[in-house]
Design goal:
about 20% strand; about 280 residues; alpha/beta; cyclic-guanylate-specific phosphodiesterase activity; EAL domain, c-di-GMP-specific phosphodiesterase class I (Or its enzymatically inactive variant); binds calcium ion; binds ligand C2E
């Protein structure tokens, strides 16, 4: 599937050529890194607040660079987007998440794995067709995290494509809610089942006066729209307690676990089960 996806990437070389020197070098390395298997998915669990159960996890990409060590996505995803490498990179993450999901299933853990999808891919028909084919042909339970800002770019095609994802069982989550451009008009139309409150509001939850109000009204809004709420960036027991009282459905953050490599994640799940 990836060899096939590669044929569609003809404009990539041109896009890379147009980048400033440093970004160009990084993009060329990244192009090779995908084939060389230098990209890895780390996983961070999402815990159901009331049931205290791990029901899903988010895949967060890292680049295991041969000389520079582990590079975080903030340092290469923007370049991948500019260089038009993001389609191939994301198809790789979906393929990897499907493979990891099967391994988890065999180890007795049935979790939904969420993948981050860059905004520009929501109006990329080749991406959408390939992603749907991969997911529809697998038994994996997946979810896609997309920001609201990315929908506002090209709402008509983004909403139609999110609906196609939802139709084949992909759970759509709105990422970074409250941090970017928000529009209640779009929120209402999105086939999203989850809303993730940006960690900007969560990390200061117990030290600011306004953030608790914002978080509580966001939780109520999401519930009114029949969506589940995930709080990201939960770092303290105090935040966890407050979020639980406010009716937040799911918790994600360093308090539970940092994003960790797949094998460590399997160990984490096994130990959690015996807790
Ligand atoms: P995001 O999707 O909002 O992911 C949450 C980020 O917060 C992650 O950073 C995660 O490690 C970090 N985080 C988790 N829990 C806590 C916490 O309790 N406190 C704090 N301070 N931070 C926490 P990371 O892994 O560096 O990823 C950064 C961003 O890169 C992601 O933000 C996402 O936008 C993007 N990204 C990651 N993986 C992918 C990918 O496979 N594809 C695409 N397109 N983007 C990705
Ligand atoms: Ca995310
Ligand atoms: Ca987020
Ligand atoms: Ca973010």
């Amino acid at each position: 599937a990836l060899a096939k996806a590669r044929e569609y990437d003809k404009p990539v070389t041109q896009a890379i050529e147009a980048l400033p020197h440093d970004a160009k070098k990084l993009a060329e390395e990244l192009d090779l890194a995908i084939d060389r298997g230098e990209l890895v998915l780390f996983y961070q669990p999402k815990v159901h607040a009331r049931r205290q159960e791990i029901t899903s996890a988010e895949a967060l990409i890292r680049w295991q660079h041969p000389t520079r060590g582990l590079i975080l996505p903030g340092d290469f995803i923007p370049v991948a987007e500019q260089a038009q490498l993001i389609r191939r990179l994301t198809l790789w993450t979906i393929e990897q998440a499907i493979a990891d999901s099967a391994k988890l299933h065999n180890a007795g853990h049935d979790l939904r794995l969420f993948v981050n999808i860059s905004g520009q891919l929501l109006s990329d028909d080749l991406f959408v067709a390939n992603a749907c084919r991969m997911v529809a042909g697998s038994d994996a339970a997946l979810g896609f995290e997309v920001t609201e800002t990315s929908v506002i770019r090209d709402p008509e095609s983004a909403i139609a494509n999110l609906q196609r994802f939802a139709d084949i069982g992909i759970r759509v989550a709105i990422d970074d809610y409250g941090a970017g451009l928000s529009s209640l008009a779009y929120l209402k139309q999105l086939p999203a089942r989850e809303l993730k409150i940006d960690k900007l509001f969560v990390t200061q939850l117990t030290s600011s006066n306004r953030d608790p109000l914002i978080v509580r009204s966001t939780i109520d809004l999401a519930h009114a729209l029949d969506m589940e709420v995930v709080a990201e960036g939960v770092e303290t027991h105090a935040a966890l307690a407050l979020l639980t009282v406010m009716g937040c459905d799911m918790i994600q953050g360093f308090l539970i676990s940092r994003p960790i490599a797949f094998d460590a994640f399997v160990t984490f799940l096994r130990e959690d089960r015996h807790r």
